[in-house]
Write a structure and sequence with these properties.
It is a single chain. With 182 residues, the chain is α/β, with parallel strands linked by helices. It has a single domain, classed as Rossmann fold. Helices cover 32% and strands 16% of the residues. It has five helices and six strands; from the N terminus they run E-H-E-H-E-H-E-E-H-E-H. It has a six-stranded parallel beta sheet, with helices on both faces. Strand 1, helix 1 and strand 2 form a beta-alpha-beta unit. Helix 2 crosses helix 3. The longest helix has 14 residues. The N and C termini lie close together (9 Å).
Length: 182
């Protein structure tokens, strides 16, 4: 599988240079799906952007998604609306933010309700026991609803640059497992 067939889906405010997604992009040539507005994310806009990238990419190779935070919610929302889900073969879902959490509702108003339908492709969700944006229990509910395998990362916070994961070899190994299924 071509490295350009791995799409990185950052969350709200994008992923900075020390985030594992940015490090994977630099090291492996994976493609970041750039959103038009990282600070005021609108679900419909983000779904449209993902759809555009999928439809303008190479049609002969399967796509694997590597999503973080609100990017996980994007995968679920996109999959519940798109007629092009066959283009995606697998998704790595990391630290899904919970837009229905009281503190996030005012900022992420268009992201509720969270789609709770099974994803039509293989997926693994990695969550943390002390994620400030989504409890481990809620992350596990997302995994169950989306039909994703569940991996408990322990006490790793939001699994972002603040978690000091570096290149995050464990996450990359999970991505390789998913890619091998394709």
């Amino acid at each position: 599988m071509n490295s350009r067939c791995v799409l990185l889906l950052p969350g709200w405010k994008d992923s900075g240079p020390l985030h594992w997604q940015s490090r994977w992009e630099a090291a492996h040539g994976y493609q970041r799906v750039e959103q038009h507005d990282w600070l005021r994310p609108l679900r419909g806009d983000w779904i449209s952007r993902l759809e555009d990238v999928l439809l303008t990419g190479r049609q002969d190779e399967p796509v694997v998604l590597a999503a973080h935070s609100l990017g996980c919610q994007l995968v679920a929302a996109w999959a519940s609306h798109s007629k092009n889900t066959h283009r995606v073969k697998a998704a790595l879902l990391v630290a899904p933010g919970d837009p229905e959490r009281e503190a996030l509702r005012p900022v992420l108003t268009s992201w509720s309700p969270v789609p709770m339908q099974r994803l039509p492709f293989a997926s693994v969700l990695i969550g943390s026991e002390n994620d400030p944006y989504c409890s481990a229990e809620r992350a596990r509910q997302f995994a169950d609803a989306w039909g994703a395998g569940w991996v408990n990362a322990g006490l790793q916070g939001h699994l972002n640059a603040d978690s000091q994961l570096g290149d995050w070899a464990e996450g990359h190994a999970q991505l390789h497992k998913l890619r091998a299924q394709v």
